[in-house]
Amino acid sequence: MSDNVSSGSESPTRAFTVETDATATYWRKGPQDTLPPPDMMGPYMRNHPVPVEAVDGRKAWIIGSGIAGLAAAFYMIRDGRMKGEDITIFDTMDIAGGSLDGAGNAEEGYIVRGGREMNWNYDNFWDLFQDVPALELPAGFSVLDEYRQVNDNDPNYSKSRLMHQQGKIRDFATLGLSKSHQWELIRLLLRRKEDLDDITIEAYFSESFFETNFWYLWRSMFAFENWQSLLEMKLYMHRFLDAIDGMADMSTLVFPKYNQYDSFVVPLTRLLQDKGVKIQFNTRVHDVDLQIRGDEKTVTGLRTMVDGQETTIPVHPSDLVFALTGSMTEGTAYGDMDTVPVLERGLHEPGEESDWTLWRNLARKSPVFGRPDKFYGDVKGSMWESATLTCRPSPFVDKLKELSVNDPYSGKTVTGGVITFTDSNWVLSFTCNRQPHFPTQPDDVLVIWVYALLMDKEGNYVKKPMPACTGREILAELCYHLGIVEQLDAIALNTKVRLALMPYITAQFMPRAAGDRPHVVPEGCTNLGLLGQFVETSNDIIFTMESSVRTARIAVYTLLKLPKQVPDISPTQYDIRTIFKAARAINNGEPFPGERLLHRLLDKTYFSHILPTLPKKEEADGDDFGNDLSGLFGKGSEALHKVTDWLEKFRANLGWK
Questions:
Q1: Where does the pLDDT of residue 640 fall: very low under 50, low under 70, confident under 90, or very high at 90 and above?
Q2: Which 3 state secondary structure label does DSSP give 437?
Q3: 160 has a pLDDT exceeding 50
Q4: Of 274, 362, 521, 537, which sits most exposed with the smallest number of CB within 10 A?
Q5: Which of 19, 117, 225, 595 is catalytic?
Q6: Which positions, given as ranges, span the membrane (predicted)?
Q7: Buried (b) or exposed (e) across 193-202, using 16+ Cβ within 10 A?
Q8: How far apart are CA 385 and CA 482, in angstroms?
């Protein structure tokens, strides 16, 4: 029997495994398998479950108003049938959204600390936003409808993805992987997750791998550092295997019309507040009172600082608590055109005033809550800096037009994602998304986002590490790599720069082992669920809005005992078409070993479409097929003759010529 459903009664209240795992066992259909495979549920999971336990009179307390906390409130209302007025969200800031931010104006300068690339198969994220009313479209349309309207009519791609030599576009037509590099990636895909605890990326790959197009594209797109988790890189490869053939030109991505605060946080908070959900700002929950009886752990109180005053909020055992563990953007230090950001967090300890305090205090109570120090304990390994440029017409905008897919003022795709300078000591990148990036942005203003990965290297032009630079100096370094530094004065006159130095922005990628991250609902917890980027799920990655929503959904369904499952990640990684096209992409766009043999075998069958099209020059060239076989079996080998004879007999039996 499949482990999707527990054995026992066939009643509607039978126990469900909320967090599914497609890798746990072989799935087959039988009388007891009433649910589809864990990763192939689709719209079938749009059902409204009948609650097993009553929700009337129960309260829910959510710590953190980022996308995970907001999603938890949404799922308690939609699927748990809780009343909005019974849900309270706490946040240390004075605005909702957590890391999904976007603020400022044209006069003082806009600021966006970071952004998230997105793709089509964020199944939980789109499940949520197909039920959230649109930001701008009329009543009856959703955020998903709005998103599709933008992206279906304005394809995303980049024509300048990699640059070098002060303004020259570097050839990024292929991933630039040698055969040995390709085998390194294939072996990584085959490795078991359990065998990769605490192994770094640089400990696995050869030194030459880090100079390939693939690594520049990968690290700048996902913000991986060489010293970070090999396990997380592997999980990313599986998660985005279907997108690897569009990674070089960014055609695999979809972007919102505006920044992610206005695109997602604003409509979702509007919906929740209309339902009665309360959001209480300037409130730091730093600890919980936890009653431990045997293996059971029940929250009985929240210890908070509200506007500087210590307060304890009582929690009934039937109430629910959802807490964010850790924070990517906690402790952000800010700077501007003439000011350097000053980091207030320690390199190894964040201090009692940080948003890590709650998780640290939980971890002191029981090992089931993980080891937060593995993630916050090395700021030099997890930090990078971003800069947001507010630009009026200047030589910089003129250069941007040369590198863009469409005119930056057209409202359509501009750079199509980050442009990365491969010879930058900082590994500097910049991007211009669709404009306006803010709904009230003036017509003559562009908002540009800049970031770099290496914080300990001197710039190529400005002989300082990025964190020691003012906004003006970072602008100068950018202009140098664009080949327009001699026009810096004219550019600076029409540009405002705001800086964000984030000590924990890639803390979630730090090397880790089993048990370092707690499960969404840790063992024995009766009314506590953990959310965000520092919790363990079966197969999903982190550092995405999808993973935040997934953790919220798992927590809500588990604690409310809802008979409904959260689908595993999309099964595209197992699709033979995905595997074939990924193999072609990794092989620099050339037919992979054995591909021509497959074409010869399948070319006149119903299944011919599963293979990438051969290059036109090969369509009528039999030598390439022979050379492919020779490469596989060796010239003149007995195996080569046997395979050739077998193939010709096979084709003859089917009546092919």
A1: low
A2: coil
A3: yes
A4: 274
A5: 117
A6: none
A7: eeebeebbbe
A8: 19
Residue 325's nearest CA partner among 375, 291, 289, 367 is 375
- Give the residue from 326, 254, 301, 298 showing the smallest Cα distance to 66: 326
Three-state DSSP at 301 gives: strand
| pLDDT(639) > 90 | no
Q: Which residues 6+ apart lie within 8 Å of 614 measured at CB? A: 591, 595, 596, 599
C-alpha distance from residue 16 to each of 298, 299, 548, 555, 615 (Å): 22, 24, 22, 14, 49
Do residues 276 and 253 lie in contact, with contact meaning Cβ atoms separated by under 8 Å? Answer: no
Query: What's the pTM?
Result: 0.93
By CB atoms closer than 10 A (0-12, 13-18, 19+), residue 139 is exposed
Hey, how many other C-beta atoms are within 10 angstroms of the C-beta on 171? Answer: 10
pLDDT tens by residue, 125-146 = 999 999 999 999 999 999 999 9
Q: Which of 75, 216, 236, 258 is catalytic?
A: 236
| Catalytic status, residue 85 | no
Q: Is 173 exposed, middle or buried (0-12, 13-18, 19+ CB in 10 A)?
A: exposed
Q: Which residue shows structure tokens 């998304």? A: 433
- Tell how far CA 144 is from the center of its chain: 18
The answer to whether residue 236 is catalytic is yes
Q: Is the peptide bond before 436 cis (omega within 30 degrees of 0)?
A: yes
